Amino acid sequence: MAAKTPHGLVIINTGDGKGKTTAALGMAMRAVGHGMRVAFVQFVKAWSVGEHDAAARLGPNLEIFRMGKGFVVGEPAPEHRQAARDALEFVRQCLRSGRYEMVAADEILTAVGLKLLAPQDVEALLPDRPPDVHLVLTGRGAWDSLIEKADLVTEMRLIKHPYDKGVLAQEGVEF
User: What is the homologous superfamily of the domain 10-154 according to CATH?
Assistant: First the structure.
């Protein structure tokens, strides 16, 4: 395990543009490069994507946990809500375990927007976080009180996307 971080940060990647998860994965790779252990918990994704194969190649310091049930359209099904609650509790356990220097909660903000979780449930993670563990939160729709409590907030803004011209998601770029 790497030397403990002197001051863990709360980091948010939000906005309507592409790159929130990709940026969080980049931070995870950087942390692994320094010998840190990272838990990367995915709240919505249920399918296999390129980062899962890449994580397996990076070795034991980067663990990705797919805990979502996939896309939510309309009123969320009970199994989607339960999966989000389970993922939230798992993030809490990862933070408290002493095993990780960085814990990423990928698409947790999207889970709030989909009404799978309440904003206060996400904010309750912050005081539970040990002071030397980085917590990375991603997804659309970060709200003001959460932004205020974070140390670093980056907003990805959509300017142009190939989907607008009918180009579907591509392997290696979107997944």
Answer: P-loop containing nucleotide triphosphate hydrolases (3.40.50.300)
